Amino acid sequence: MDSYNIMFVILAVLIVCASFATVLAKSVLRAAAYLFFALLGVAGMYFLMGYTFLGSVQVMVYCGGIVVLYVFAILLTRGAKDKLSENTKQKIFASALLSLTGLGAFVYAILKANLLHENLFRPEPLYAPSEEATISINTIGRHMLSTDVNGYLLPFEAVSVLLLACIVAALVIARKR
Amino acid sequence: MLDLASWTSAIHTWLLGLVPEWAAILLECVVVALLIITLYAVFAIVLIYMERKVCAFFQCRIGPNRVGKWGLLQVFSDVFKMLQKEIINMRKSDMFLHDLAPFLVVTASMLTFACLPWNKGGHIIDFNVGLFFMVAVSSIGVVGILLAGLGSNSKYPMIGSMRAGAQLISYEISIGITMLTIVALSGTMQISEIVQQQADNGWNIIRGHVPAVIAFLIYLIAGNAECNRGPFDLPEGESELTAGYHTEYSGMHFGFFYLAEYLNLFIAAGIATTLFLGGWAPLHIAGLDGFNAVMDAVPGAVWFIGKTFFVIFLLMWERWTFPRLRIDHILSLEWKYLMPISLINLLLMALVVVFGLGINV
């Protein structure tokens, strides 16, 4: 195991532990704090793979944006000592069903794509990406605003329409008199 | 100009001869981290002394002058006092979040600190997306401040952290847009590239003419707001909120917030230096070759730190001159004035770049 693989294991353990802690935490605020670490671990994975732009976006949008949003939402809607509600039988049944469905879809996708093979038991070590394999921000910018086959101008603009709709909706909710 | 990259690569090859590659990289990382932490502490001490003296100067006082010559040892004695203090735990606070928050704030500011270009070849974190990474990691600090306010389970910190959150998120927008203005001028986000261009073609504030000057002024205002300082220090406004989000902290946990506040000032000034004043690039005047040769003899680190302290003086001037604003004034200043101006400024810069109007010295 070289340093690259050791780093991968550290990040993986961090993500798994933080995700479990997020789900199992009794206080909402603590769950948000654990979620922050899980998202940070995912950002670390992106950096490990050489996707520095995606990693930075993950840190900025998820760690610095979404988590802050959650904390603000918790702050503004603090009720019942921010403890979680009791688990009813209905709730447990519904969540078990949902998670089993998710697990099924996940396992099916892995089997379908033949990702398993014998790799599950004799995993190959990971290799650090070469300098050429890492995508520069110039390439991303050109693809984002080009109308070629590999261009993403239309989805990019469609997302901005979605954001505009969100802003208008927020204004409508905030300004009702 | 001295290129530190030759030194670092020489050290790397020497280490490779002694130990395997992973151990060499680990050792280098540890040494660089220790270097950053030491610099962090040293700059904090210098900045606190400077703040006291500059503040005293603006208020027609003398400032610290009892401990040591010219009060030079005052800050050291304050640091020792803080190190000895007990770290108190409030009974009904969320212990885990309360203790976690200062470390988040300090980590965010150290990561940003590591992105600064100290010299030619002397940058520590230098990605293709450098500037964006810098903004991204600095936004982790907001989470720390919010958790500090909520984890303390007390009214003053909660109000302080809410104000801080609203203010930091708002002013991050105009900081981001002013940075984009310079990225549009340079055509790259890599910090070492931005500085290298300025060393070759002249400083950005001259090269980018009017839009660069407007961006610099907006950055000075928004930078002070990002550090929770100056006329924008109401997250910790002492007359109404005792100490804002760090009211319930004591000892070194409070010390971390204090450290991060001063280092954020240094970082804000360092970014301004990198983007507008040429980073480590020496002052060149076209035509005066002898003068340029003398300026080249001064090491890049001296240039960088010197310019940064000049910008810090500008920021302190701003802080001790204007009275504190109200929260709605702060938000309307950002959303109604600074953001539209910086957006139009970005458009202006795009025009300057497209028509090739930038000055190359």
List keywords for this structure.
heterodimer; A: 177 residues; mainly alpha; Four Helix Bundle (Hemerythrin (Met), subunit A); 69% helix; globular; B: 361 residues; 15 helices; 71% helix
Describe the structure.
- The complex is a heterodimer of chains A (177) and B (361).
- Chain A is mainly alpha-helical.
- Helices cover 69% and strands 0% of the residues of chain A.
- Chain A has helices spanning 3-24, 28-48, 52-76, 89-112, 137-144, 153-174.
- By secondary structure, chain B is mainly alpha-helical.
- Chain B has one domain.
- Helix content of chain B is 71%, strand content 0%.
- The mean pLDDT of chain B is 84.
- At the A-B interface, α2 and α3 of A face α2, α4, α5, α6 and α7 of B.
Looking at the structure, the CATH topology of the largest domain in chain A is: Four Helix Bundle (Hemerythrin (Met), subunit A)
The helix/strand class of chain B is: mainly alpha
The first-to-last residue Cα distance of chain B is 18 Å
Shape of chain A: globular
Helix content of chain B: over 70%
Distance between the termini of chain A: 63 Å
Rg over alpha carbons of chain B:
21 Å
**CATH H-tier superfamily of the largest domain in chain A:** NADH-ubiquinone/plastoquinone oxidoreductase chain 6, subunit NuoJ
Determine the strand fraction of chain A and express it as a percent band: under 5%
Q: Helix segment count of chain B?
A: 15
Annotated CATH architecture of the largest domain in chain A: Up-down Bundle
Number of domains of chain A: 2
The biggest beta sheet of chain B reads: none
Largest sheet descriptor of chain A: none
Total number of β-strand segments of chain A?
Answer: 0
What are the low-pLDDT stretches of chain B, counting only 5+ consecutive residues below 50?
none
Number of domains of chain B: 1
**Portion in helices of chain A:** 55-70%
Order of helices and strands of chain A: HHHHHH
